[in-house]
Amino acid sequence: MHQKQRICILVKAYPQPSQKYEETVCCAGITEDGRLLRLYPIPYRRLKKEQQFQRFDWVEMDIAKDTSDHRPESHKVVPDSIRIVQLSSALKPEQKVRLWKPFIADSLQALKEENVKTGRSLGIIKPDPDTVKFSAKPIREASAEDQALTNNLYRQASLLDTEPLKELHKPEFTFEYRFTSAGHTHEMKIHDWEVAAAYHHYKKRYGDKALEMLSNEYGNNIPRQNLHIILGTMKAHPRQFIIIGLLRTTEDINLADAQQTLL
Questions:
Q1: 22 neighbors 57 (Cβ within 8 angstroms)
Q2: Rounded distance between C-alpha atoms, residue 32 and residue 255, angstroms
Q3: Which helix (H) or strand (E) holds 8?
Q4: Which residues contact 21 (CB under 8 A, 6 or more apart)?
Q5: Residue 21: which of 2, 3, 43, 50 has the closest Cα?
Q6: DSSP code, position 101
Q7: Which CATH number applies to 3-92?
Q8: Which pTM was predicted?
Q9: Can you give the pLDDT at residue 158?
């Protein structure tokens, strides 16, 4: 049964072509009663302009537990029910921190151990200080068969839509973070829509220096901004965590609770 929930959006993953839904975006957000949930399938680029939420917007939507997904946080969304109720600009930095602070795990290893015990598939960690390294790796050309399938999926129009979606920029690189957590080294791809969008913005602004500028931002500037990493597992790989989002703040995490309460 669907229930109406108000959720503060933390993550928008990069859009993925889908044979069933044309294209979907998987999101993660925090409910008013303090639960971190995975939300899908959201046809983000098919939403009306007034429905297209940004990170830290409070959004009202009808959701239901996805009984076909073993991950406890996974919920299906009714896209037509999506309504933005408060923009991110209305939240102070310390208010944003208080929202996600309860979901910080002691380390990636601790999160993995909890995943085995309870099935927890979403969490936040802080990398060990001065260990984050950013890299970009060229994407190998897809096979002709895979490219044809992808192109066909992106050109599909749903029964209610007359125009196909505009094809997304073809990814040129995969972006990765290498870091340590509690002394253990990890290397993971960043699946956040934000970094891909930033690269295409930098290409327009900086041209041939785009990758250099992006590497400086994500490799030097962002890690200095109290970087925390949002991690989630994949349905097909329930024990494997991937980076789905990045959080940074100038606030002292330990002092956030000393501020006035959010709601």
A1: no
A2: 21
A3: strand 3-12
A4: 41, 43
A5: 43
A6: G
A7: 2.40.50.140
A8: 0.87
A9: 46
